[in-house]
UniProtKB/TrEMBL annotation:
TM region(s), chain numbering: none
Species this chain originates from: Maritimibacter dapengensis
Name of the molecule in the record: Triosephosphate isomerase
The organism's taxonomic lineage, starting at the top: Bacteria, Pseudomonadati, Pseudomonadota, Alphaproteobacteria, Rhodobacterales
Complex and partners: Homodimer.
Principal location: cytoplasm
Keyword set, alphabetical order: Cytoplasm, Gluconeogenesis, Glycolysis, Isomerase
Pathway(s) it belongs to: Carbohydrate degradation; glycolysis; D-glyceraldehyde 3-phosphate from glycerone phosphate: step 1/1; Carbohydrate biosynthesis; gluconeogenesis; Carbohydrate metabolism; erythritol degradation
Catalytic reactions on record: D-glyceraldehyde 3-phosphate = dihydroxyacetone phosphate
Length: 246
């Protein structure tokens, strides 16, 4: 069976005081069956790990493709691991846009992350123009092929489908549209990696997931959880999303 994962991406939000939200979440949802992941800014990784213990996984939001070196301002997968992280988000559309990251860049980062022992959450998603031009599946297929390295397993790979136009906008695709893309991703994973890896890789939906729409989204075929931005910042919002997955 595919494991379920509720992942929170705090993006560039969060100071030390924000970790009170993580404390609350550990108390309320530290013992649920679903896997729970919080990806705070890099400055909070160690402190978050200390609070989360083994109850909630901690991850980075990006990493460099090299393990160390002259790359001012970057952090490596090794550093995330050393700080207690076990996951890293890669290829988020904000990284692809703000830092012009290509599928090739994402794949190189993913290789480094896997070598450091991290599980990679690879993000894919179409723009509104691409959806309106009926190119969604072509775009997703290309991103999957280009961004995911060969050496992955169902334990070390998570795919997040995040339509760019749904991120932080309050808009979501219809349930049928989500199902079409998730079924497509599942079939591409099975075709490339075989049934074992293909069926055990969690496929998350991301884009304006809230307590009010989580349950219906989790009812869609091949949706194994969510990557949540805004609604992961407060335990009172993220908690009910985790509940909807249980
Ligand atoms: C995200 O950035 O990964 C995301 C899904 O954001 P939001 O939930 O705020 O739409």
């Amino acid at each position: 069976m595919t494991r379920k994962l509720a992942a929170g991406n705090w993006k560039m939000n969060g100071l030390m005081a924000s970790l009170d939200e993580l404390k609350t979440l550990v108390q309320s949802h530290g013992d649920v069956d679903t896997d729970v992941l919080i990806c705070p800014p890099a400055t909070l990784l160690t402190a978050a790990r200390d609070i989360a213990g083994d109850k909630i996984a901690i991850g980075g939001q990006d990493c460099h493709a090299e393990a160390f070196g002259a790359h001012t301002g970057d952090i490596s997968a090794e550093m995330i691991r050393d700080a207690g992280g076990t996951y890293v988000i890669l290829g988020h559309s904000e990284r692809r846009e703000d830092h012009e990251e290509t599928d090739e860049n994402v794949r190189a980062k993913a290789k480094a992350a896997l070598a450091a022992g991290l599980t990679v959450v690879i993000c894919v998603g179409e723009s509104l123009e691409e959806r309106e031009a009926a190119n969604t599946l072509d775009i997703i297929g290309g991103q999957l092929a280009g961004s995911i390295p060969d050496l992955v397993t169902g334990q070390t790979l998570v795919v997040a489908y995040e339509p760019i136009w749904a991120i932080g906008t309050g808009k979501t695709p219809t349930l049928d549209e989500i199902g079409e893309v998730h079924d497509f991703i599942r079939s591409r994973l099975e075709r490339r990696f075989g049934a074992g890896v293909g069926r055990s890789t969690p496929i998350l939906y991301g884009g304006s997931v809230k307590p009010g729409n989580a349950a219906e989204i989790f009812g869609v075929s091949n949706v194994d959880g969510a990557l949540v931005g805004g609604a992961s910042l407060k335990a009172e919002d993220f908690g009910p999303i985790i509940d909807a997955l249980e």
